[in-house]
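Below is a filled-in request sheet from our internal design queue. Each sheet records the structural input a requester submitted and the sequence that came back. We keep these sheets so that new team members can see what a complete request looks like end to end.

REQUESTER: design group, bay 2
PRIORITY: normal
MODE: inverse folding
CHAIN LENGTH: 232
BACKBONE (tokenized):
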């Protein structure tokens, strides 16, 4: 029987590729997504499409209202930055950072993994082409793994948890190429931080720009139509 793994699935390019990697490595995937008070539910719809198409064992959507905390452009009325250069993206932590989001999400994924008897958790964090988030770095993942094995019954009893970050040192272009090798249908995904009401990506937020950069450098066409900005 294939080993179980919990995969954090946002419905975006990175998490969908990560899910495909987990399946390629022989894991039976249990996908977990979060309704956390984000600006839109379009990403949850994308996660549902991905989970259904890729045949996960179970897709669990957890509600945790981070909008009550706010302090992020994704969970409050703070405007989402647009048209930033790559240098600007990494110069400081952007307002799209959600306080402690990956810590909250990984903790809930850890709880589900322990309940399932799974020892493996996959998350699509990336420390190369990313928007400056501190909870996407290798040292953060290493620290969380130590905590996971200190603070759970399974960990204390010797059933150690492993946090897999298969994309952490890859460029966006490398991620796109890897996903294409694995047959990922990127038309199912959604990456934009601030889409229109009908779900069309803005084409100018950090996430849209990084996605466009990835497809361009991979020499591939993004199956999602993204409007061109004045500078694009």
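RETURNED SEQUENCE:
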């Amino acid at each position: 029987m294939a080993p179980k793994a919990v995969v954090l699935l946002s419905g975006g390019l990175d998490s969908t590729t990560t899910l495909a990697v987990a399946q390629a490595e022989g894991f039976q995937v249990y996908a977990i997504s979060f309704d956390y008070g984000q600006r839109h539910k379009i990403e949850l719809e994308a996660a549902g499409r991905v989970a259904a198409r890729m045949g996960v064992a179970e897709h669990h959507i957890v509600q945790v209202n981070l909008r009550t905390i706010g302090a992020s452009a994704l969970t409050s009325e703070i405007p989402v930055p647009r048209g930033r250069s790559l240098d600007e993206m990494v110069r400081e932590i952007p307002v799209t950072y959600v306080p402690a989001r990956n810590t909250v999400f990984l903790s809930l994924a850890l709880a589900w993994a322990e309940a399932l008897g799974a020892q493996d958790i996959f998350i699509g964090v990336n420390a190369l082409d990313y928007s400056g988030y501190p909870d996407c770095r290798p040292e953060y993942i290493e620290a969380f793994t130590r905590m996971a094995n200190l603070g759970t019954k399974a960990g204390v009893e010797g059933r150690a948890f492993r946090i897999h970050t298969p994309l952490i040192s890859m460029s966006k272009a490398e991620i796109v190429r890897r996903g294409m090798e694995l047959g990922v249908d990127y038309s199912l995904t959604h990456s934009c931080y601030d889409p229109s009401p009908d779900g069309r990506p803005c084409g100018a937020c950090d996430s849209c720009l990084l996605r466009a950069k990835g497809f361009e450098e991979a020499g591939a066409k993004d199956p999602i139509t993204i409007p061109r900005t004045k500078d694009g």
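SHEET NOTES:
- The first strand starts at residue 4 and ends at 8.
- The chain has eight helices and five strands.
FILED BY: M.R.
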